[in-house]
């Protein structure tokens, strides 16, 4: 916290010195690049933190600028009315962005080019409207003839207001990084699938990030109107959108200060050198290309690495853990039933009128030859693949039409066949995210204390001397060996205290000792919580050690259920396994 305040105070002091050292004209020039920099910070937030690239963020900068110009003209200098109106415009832009992102990201995984292209199309449309509606926007000539905010001189009094905006935005973005909201965003980029299984709706997380990005852009745009005294279609055009992306990339999109640095450095150098250095734009494009290819973290990444090499980074002290509040997943009730479930994908019938009733408590092992549809059954339950016929119910609740991220609130958690952990985060951060799962309420994402939550299942695992997690909490999860990764994913799966745990080949890639440990941990969890656990497994020793009951799947149908001894005696099962499968 202290370092955040120091950095922002230094930023404010450095920027406020500009008019003293360089005069009003330099401050006016820097003020413009700072406003562009704030808008680029919005782009950096969406791209670097949210993992999706908005190609048309000048839309919100322009809406902020035109909106503020119109308000300033209509109200003729009433300061508080103007400020309230500008804040309202920024909120409206954020709401617009939220809606756009929800529409585009809903029901889709990934943050691919579709979103970027739509935002590009939107800014092209907006620029066209601005050019062709002179009655509203002043057309090509621009919107002018309004007083600046509070009558502040763009060459004098407005500059401290711009600096205040810069510091407020930088401080907010830096603080968000230290709060659960920032961790959730990092989780989104690191492993969207796991985040969704932990009960976070990726499309909503992205929508909030895009709303923040748009609101920041609109605030910058609203001061730009006063700074320039005129708003032209360039303020809402594609060129500015592209420049915001270049500044964010070159300065460093992963850091709140990076885009600001990029905008001021490139913007100022461009204004000084564009007319004297031939091919200046080509040079900027070349730098952009080099950054994209060789230095994705931009200039701020180099600066951070330099600071780390000099040993100037302070290690954050870990505050003692707090008991986590009750989990919604622990309150869910009812046995899971699949009734005549049919599922086809890629033209292949995978589940063929599959019916299976799970016990409300105990361990059910699902076995069957390769390709029998075991993993697909879990995909159907967790809504990762759409079911075409039949019903899946949990107690009295139908799971039909629900999304993957809603499953945790129904008490369902899943460990994947290939362990999915947040590879770019430390083990501690992985467990912090899992502690938030199913427990966050209201404004918890914006409070620091939820990062200290510790859940009963994770506390037990960390205290267990055989579980290889407690010693390396500050290591990146991406460097864990396969066995340790399985335990980390198990810890994250159990952390929300789910009533129904689905473990897909939990011992894959493990040594015999690790496999034994996995069996013990699954058994312990079942006994401590009375939950139902479904384990998909090929290893019959493990099935023997774990199963209260066994279900055999074959060609997308339930072939037999009963104890392991019973299904072994079943002639149909014997025939399937004698057919050369595992
Ligand atoms: N999304 C999909 N699109 C097309 N085919 C799929 C899809 N998912 C699974 N399949 C196919 O469905 C069949 C069943 O796959 P599934 O992974 O459910 O089998 P499994 O019983 O878990 O096998 P294994 O024990 O080898 O993991 C396989 O032939 C697989 O290739």
Gap between N and C termini: 56 Å
CATH topology category name of the largest domain: Rossmann fold
Discrete helix count: 22
Radius of gyration: 28 Å
Domains, number: 2
Instruction: Tell me how many strands there are.
Output: 14
Shape: elongated
Uncertain residue ranges:
none
CATH superfamily of the largest domain: P-loop containing nucleotide triphosphate hydrolases
Reading off the top of the CATH hierarchy, the class of the largest domain is best stated as: Alpha Beta
Strand order of the largest sheet: 9-11-12-6-13-14
**SS class:** alpha/beta
Largest sheet: 6 strands, mixed
- Small molecules bound: adenosine-5'-triphosphate
What is the annotated CATH architecture of the largest domain? 3-Layer(aba) Sandwich
- Measured by DSSP, the beta-strand proportion falls in 5-15%
Mean pLDDT: 90
Classify the helix fraction into a percent range.
40-55%
